[in-house]
Design a protein that fits this description.
alpha+beta, five-stranded mixed beta sheet, 9 helices, 16 strands
Length: 330
């Protein structure tokens, strides 16, 4: 309730500035109590996950610069940090990035702790594909309730550490350059003593891994997947960008797949397009061979087809009489 409303309710007639300052002083004494427990993290039990948005725009292929998310996963027991910049915060890219970072850990934490990130799930319901991802890894995705930052305070503090220790004085030419610099810095960061545990993450990670789950024996089917019928313009759309496809398969059903680096299109298992994935939205990626093929097919279509008339196209009318059994009838 604003101090001005309180003053009106109690019929205050003095200085509103004095009244407002005293209300501000009294508010903490009447605020509801929200205790924060001290949490302990067993080895192999959990990894805290979050998105960090660096306060610097990253140059992209089309010359624009944008803010991009960095997926951060921290092993809660050892405080070992892994992180990678990803193109979007959509489910497909979040799962692809999570799998890469889990592979860097070498084992699977028994729980992946998230807040209510839309690409992972909201209001207790996981986004499409997240449950299958967790089931394949035999892990559990835990979504925190709102207003509970303490439960993943480890990764939140690492995000702040990135801004104060990694970002100052750095410039980046591309997302790949950002990831290369971040990976190099994390090697040194994981070798520093963490004050709260009085140990280095690199010294504790092996014990942490020993209590984690093994990586799945089969490769995960992750990323963008869609089946579409290729139109006359021989382009397919993925994440707001268009990619050319071999025009010879126009009108056929093709399978579009993509990971963080490549976009591939297949027809019956045969690759008919393979492009580097662009992170800029609204881009058009064209393979020159596809343009040449389209030009050749267009010329063939526009050329008139000659019709050859010869003796082989004429037939004796008596053949029809014999076919209908009227041969010899007057």
């Amino acid at each position: 309730m604003p101090a001005t409303v309180i003053a009106e309710r109690v019929e205050w007639s003095g200085s509103i500035t004095w009244f407002r300052e005293n209300v501000r002083r009294l508010r903490p004494e009447h605020r509801p109590v929200d205790p924060a427990d001290r949490l302990s993290w067993a080895a192999g039990d959990a990894a805290q996950c979050d998105l960090w948005f660096p306060p610097a725009k990253i140059p992209l292929e089309d010359g624009t610069s944008v803010l991009l998310p960095v997926l951060v996963i921290v092993a809660a027991h050892s405080r070992f940090v892994t992180a990678k910049m990803i193109p979007t915060r959509k489910t497909e890219d979040l799962l692809l990035g999570s799998w890469e970072l889990i592979q860097q850990l070498g084992r699977v934490p028994r729980r992946l702790i998230w807040d209510n990130e839309p690409g992972i799930g909201q209001k207790g319901r996981l986004a499409q594909g997240v449950a299958a991802f967790a089931g394949t890894l035999a892990t559990k995705v835990v979504q925190l309730r709102p207003y509970d930052p303490e439960s993943k305070g480890i990764v939140e503090r690492r995000n702040g550490w990135f801004e104060t220790s990694f970002m100052p004085g750095r410039t980046f030419t591309s997302p790949a350059d950002f990831n290369a610099q971040l990976a190099d810095w994390l090697e040194r960061a994981n070798s520093r003593v963490v004050r709260t545990i009085k140990a280095r993450p690199v010294d504790l990670i092996e014990h942490d891994r020993s209590r984690m789950l093994p990586l799945p024996p089969i490769p995960l089917q992750l990323g963008w997947r869609e089946r579409v019928r290729l139109g006359r313009d021989y382009y397919v759309r993925l994440d707001a960008s268009d990619y050319s496809v071999d025009p010879q398969v126009i009108g056929r059903l093709v399978d579009v797949t993509a990971d963080l680096d490549r976009v591939r299109v297949r027809l019956d298992g045969r690759i008919v397009a393979d492009h580097a994935r662009v992170w800029a939205r609204g881009s058009t990626v064209t393979d020159p061979t596809h343009v040449e093929t389209a030009k050749r097919l267009r010329q063939q279509f526009q050329q008139p087809r000659p019709t050859a008339v010869g003796d082989d196209l004429t037939r004796d009318l008596a053949d029809y009489d014999r076919a209908f059994g009227i041969e010899g009838v007057a």
